[in-house]
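2024-03-11 09:14:02 INFO queue: dequeued item Prostate and testis expressed protein 2, len=105
2024-03-11 09:14:02 INFO validating residues
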Amino acid sequence: MLVLFLLVIFTLLCPSEEIARSCYKCRRYHLGLCYDGMKSCHLKYNQYCATENIYIFTQQGYSLYFYSKLSCMYNCEDINFLDHDQRTQIICCTHSSYCNLPQGN
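2024-03-11 09:14:37 INFO prediction written
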């Protein structure tokens, strides 16, 4: 009976939504492969699953996809950064576990 009581208290104090969310973690992801070994991270308070897409600029000025970084990120915002030779696009999500896997067009 005590175990059941503790389980109910734990469930009420720790919403399952916070516990259940996980994300992919990889420093260099490209064409469906993680080159340093795919890992996972579990979301903490104020964290999001994040995909950082890295693009390089061609001589003609077009951006060409290079690779992605997958992680758990605090206070994540969808944003684009422009540098003189590359563009970084950050995409954040929390709608489901492992939502930060890049989708090809």
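2024-03-11 09:14:37 INFO annotate: The mean pLDDT is 85.
2024-03-11 09:14:38 INFO item closed
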